[in-house]
Structure formats: structure tokens, C-alpha cells
Amino acid sequence: MEPHDLRETQRDTGGGGGTIAKGAVRRLGDRVFQGLSTWSGAAILIILALVAAFLLWQGLPALTSPAADLPYGPFPQFVIPLVFGTVWAALLALLMGVPVAVAIALFISHYAPRRLAAGLGYVVDLLAAVPSVVYGLWGIGVLAPVLQPTFVWLTERLAFIPLFAGPASGTGRTVLTAAMVLAVMILPIVTALSREVFLQTPKLHEEAALALGATRWEMIRMAVFPFARPGIVSAAMLGLGRALGETMAVAMVLSPSMIISFALLTSQNPNTIAANIALSFPEAYGLGINQLIATGLVLFVITLAVNMIARGIVNRRRDFSGAN
């Protein structure tokens, strides 16, 4: 028997002890990795369930107690303005931040030279490492004073539009300023995810569009965007989740009131759930603590609903994205 045939026989019959040992180690590693992955996924669900149970347990007294016993008044009247402010500020941040983030991601992935793209990507990613307190200080000390004259100009000329109704805030600390700060905070999340999705577009699709005579923008519109649409939606929803739950930056920038108002430039602005908890919790006691935790439960439900809606949109669009 030739040496080559002998090696093949040993491999087929398990005659090589080293091969068996390597296979056993590999199978053991696979089992360990599978177990760690399974338990990690289960741990996320367990932690989520524990958080929900804690919020429900601590918030239930505020939901079941008479309105007269609640220090912040009837719970629906207390939480509805906060829900409005939370959703309103987050949606404004999303409207301003997502187009800019997608444009930056598109520039990095398809327009910028390689060296510039790498450096710009690092700079954008570093924005995620900046603490929210620093964003809040920047909003108070830099953004609000710079925007205040613009707010006055808008109220003088566009006051007939309810969004720009006056009088303008004298400090610039408005819900629009807070939304701009939130837009900057969600920028690195949406940009990073959109950039990775754009880079995963099949090159054959792009080359085929260019070969048919499409310009670069037409190629992006026909090949890149359809493929990346589910990823862009997912990135936007993650950014929305960050904006909904942001606390310190909003608490520092806003001049909050318990109102429902679409006006963007006035000194009276709707508050958010997270910022109200941060500002009110140190002085809360008794049922007041339970009432604040109950608002946290409402924020938890809103965030969960947003993520479920985003997942449904992504799953529905995936079959038409060209990814399959």
C-alpha cells in the first residue's frame, strides 16, 4: 500500500490519534461556545423580565392607589404630558439626526477616499464615547446661546405657524435645542450601523448598475438603498430608543413644564419621562417614588413597542431588500 493510501485509510478509519484528539477538542469547543451563546441569550431575556417585574412591582401601588393619595396627582394626568414630551423630543431628534447620519455613512462608504473614510469613521464613532453630561453642558453653554437669536428671528417672522409661535425663550433652552442635542447623540449609532449595511451591499449589484450606464447616485439609489433599507430602519429605531431613554442631557438643557405643546421655541416645554425621574427622584418619598417608577414602566413599554414595530418593519421588508 502506498503511503498516500495509508494516510487516507487512517483518516477514514480513525487510525490517526492526533486527528481524533483534534476533532474531540474542536467538538468540545463547539459545545462550550454553543452553551455560552445559549446562556447569554437566555440571560438577556431573564434580565429584561426581571426589570419589567421590578417596575411593575414598584409601580403597582401608584396604579392602584386613589388619586387623592398620590403626591403628583392622578396618574393619567401626570404621565400623559411626560409621554408626549418623551415621544415629541425623540421624534424631532430622529427627523434631524437620521438623514445626516445616513448621509455621513454614505459618504464614508461610497464617496470618501479610503484614508479619509477611515479617519472620519473613527471620529464619528468617538462621539458615542462622550458622556451625556458633556452633551448637556455643550447644549447649555454653546448651542442654546448660539440658537437664541435664531429663535427670536423665527418667532418674529413665522409666528403664524404653531410650531414657531412665540414668545421665544430668552435662554435658548427649548425642546428644539434638546432635540438637537439628542440628534447629535444618536448620530454615531445610526451612522455606524448604516455604514456597515452600505458596505455589505453585493458588489455585483453595484457593478451591474454602473455597467448599464447608471451614475454613482443612480447606482446607490437602485442597488444600495433597496438592499440597506431594513438596516437603516433598524439603525433609526436603535437611535430612537437612545433618544427615548436619554436622561441627563435633556434634564440639563430643557426648561420643563408639565404641559402638552407643539411649540418649539418657547420657554415652557414639555418634559420627558427620564428627565422628570432624574429631577424629581431625590425629593420623592412614599407613593411619589412608586409614581415615578410607574412612569418608568410606561417608558419601558414604549421602548419595547418601538423595538417590536421596528422588528416587524424589518422582517416585512427583508424579502424585498435584495439581501436574499
Structure description:
Residues 83-310 form the ABC transmembrane type-1 domain. It is a multi-pass membrane protein. Helices cover 76% and strands 1% of the residues. The chain is globular, with a radius of gyration of 27 Å. Helix 3 packs across helix 6 (175-199), helix 3 (75-111) runs antiparallel to helix 8 (216-245) and helix 4 (114-126) crosses helix 6. The protein has helices spanning 3-13, 17-64, 75-111, 114-126, 132-158, 175-199, 203-211, 216-245, 248-253, 273-280, 287-318, and strands at residues 256-257, 269-270. It folds into 2 domains: 17-64; 76-318, MetI-like (MetI-like fold, Orthogonal Bundle), CATH 1.10.3720.10.
Q: Layout of SSEs?
A:
Blueprint: H1 3-13, H2 17-64, H3 75-111, H4 114-126, H5 132-158, H6 175-199, H7 203-211, H8 216-245, H9 248-253, E1 256-257, E2 269-270, H10 273-280, H11 287-318
Parallel strand pairs: 1-2
